[in-house]
Predict the structure.
Amino acid sequence: MSGIRALFQGMNISASAMKAERARVDIIAKNIAHSGTTRMPDTGEPYRREIVHFAPIYKQNTNGGYDVDGVKVDQVMKDFTTPFELINDPGHIDADVEGNVRMPNVNTVREMAELITAMRAYEANVQVAENFEKMAQMGLNLAK
């Protein structure tokens, strides 16, 4: 029974990682989509890049301690460390008196690199889940 429990635990951990990476991909897509948004309706400021932070999921073990049982999105935070970019575009609707426009703090090259990293992590967890499935199938074949 312990082996089966470990197999399902491994599958659950992999599934939680895929869910977390999917959330990261969604936030990256949102950042890229707003890379040209100079005024948000709620703040009046340019769009501020968002960052996903992960945290472990803990599960109490039989010894009274805790084991890591997966990963989750802990929080999505606005990036206040990267400044807005200033461009000179006097004809822009959001230009100040000097003709400067504050642009979002989204660097699309950086976001694309983050997207590739998130996609590779997701794909790696898909492979892990598929391997767990193969192991379960092998176990069932042995039981025949």
Summary: The chain has one domain: 2-143. The first strand starts at residue 50 and ends at 60. Residues 2-143 form one domain. The chain has a mean pLDDT of 92.
